[in-house]
Amino acid sequence: MIELRPATCDDLDLLWELRTRAVAHACAAHYSEAVLAVWLASPVPDSLRGLFADGGGMVAIEDIRMLGYAVWNAASGEVDGLFVEPAQHGRGIGAMLMNAIESAARAAGCARLFLSASLNAVPFYGRAGFVAVREEMYPHRSGIGIPSVFMEKQLDGL
Fold it and tell me: pTM of the entire structure?
């Protein structure tokens, strides 16, 4: 049975490895090898530690295996990332994580969520109710620009 629990700073290294596998798998058909090489080589950002410490991380687990995770910023409403282990795609794990983020955002009083979606993730976020606002070049901290789509979702029920 898949369960969700808050992410902790102790999870960072394993979750970053999961993220790297997910990006390598899901983004290969959408980005050049040069972009992927830089993207995949980037180290864990310091900002994740702060987001996890503030309760902005959620991990999907089954038994003791980490299947995916999501990160969001409660202060701004930005979804920083959502990644699922490639072998676990199609099980609804991403939707579970997104629902958990939305519930937490509503509880925190956020009126909307927003994100910069990688090109492969646009359909997923569209199914989750996000609307594409504009295409953009996401300024990755490694210095490269990653083609992406800025998306947002208005939250009801506040």
Answer: 0.91
